[in-house]
Amino acid sequence: MIKLFCGEDRIKAKKAIADFLGSNYEVIEGGELVPTDLPSLFLGQSLFEKTRQILIQDLSANKPVFDELPKYLDTPHKVAILELKLDKRSSTYKSLQGKVEIRDFPLPKDPNLNLVFGIYRTAKTDGKKAVAMLEKIKSEEDPIMFFGLLASQAIKDFSLRQGIKEKRALKELSDLDIKLKTTSFQPWLLIESFLLRLSSLQ
Length: 202
Description:
Mean pLDDT: 87
Number of helices: 9
Radius of gyration: 18 Å
Order of helices and strands: EHEHEHEHEHHHHH
């Protein structure tokens, strides 16, 4: 069974994924897959269990692999696919509609929304200034939701200009997402570190 979880509200999406997969599941980065990985991922069994619980993150950004997804709808495993945004005009999305459950988790409207996007744009040229801007609003923001807004802006940038810097920013954000979920560092420190690095990405 495959379910798609889409949207910028990562907190609600992750809770829904945990309800679907349970607390013990494999995490796969979609950007690192190639089409030949898919038979073993969707149809292969582990040594100890016939069925697996799998979370695949950001698969749609890897178009050659995402386009193969409809071939594996009969997987015996429980597979959750987490996306910040899906292109609803794509043929792959249309072929999945009605065949898999697709759940959307948009962020609630944030009065600081434009300022958040301004912080991201500023960080692309001046990380220190962006961190100073963040200091003014972070007491009113949730760091995970703020991260989701940064990621959505990076995806928008990538859709407009698929340059090396835009690709590196998405990779950095993917790494940041993992760190936010797996380390004990203060979330804001990790986000500020990303903002400081962004202008130097090549």
